[in-house]
Specification:
alpha+beta, Immunoglobulin-like, three-stranded mixed beta sheet, globular
Length: 139
């Protein structure tokens, strides 16, 4: 009796250890999702942080993510590496400043994204429309 209980427990232990190392979906082996964390900061032309700026990350024509800067002007995205393409870029919008479009390839986390009052400045109404519209993008 003891031998059969020991055998069953050993068998259960063996299968539970083996199944933990594999991630299977529909019988096929699936590799885990590798997330890339993209952190940035939005500032004005005098290097002052801009809170509540709307940041849209275009992964491709049909895929986007949204973020809003905190009180320190910081934002963050967690993106599946497989979703990032060559054309992936940021669009940063805040009222009273021109829209800043920046390719992910040219983005440096240590260097803040600077908004300028030169050019086509975003109105308060346009800012609110953009702010609300990017909520439909994934987080």
């Amino acid at each position: 009796m003891k031998k059969s209980i020991f055998f069953c427990v050993s068998l259960i232990f063996l299968f539970s250890c083996k199944s933990k190392g594999e991630n299977k979906e529909n019988g096929a082996s699936v590799s885990p999702v590798k997330l890339r964390v993209i952190k940035g900061k939005v500032v004005d032309d005098k290097r002052k942080e801009i809170a509540f700026a709307a940041v849209k990350l275009y992964l491709d024509d049909n895929d986007c993510m949204n973020a809003y800067t905190d009180n320190d002007g910081a934002f963050e995205f967690e993106v599946d590496e497989l979703r990032i393409k060559d054309q992936t870029h940021f669009e940063v919008v805040y009222k009273g400043y021109a829209i800043n479009m920046l390719s992910l390839r040219n983005f440096e986390e240590k260097k803040p994204i600077a908004l300028s009052k030169k050019g086509n400045v975003v109105t308060t109404a346009d800012y609110h429309v953009f702010y609300e519209s990017i909520k439909s993008c994934s987080r």
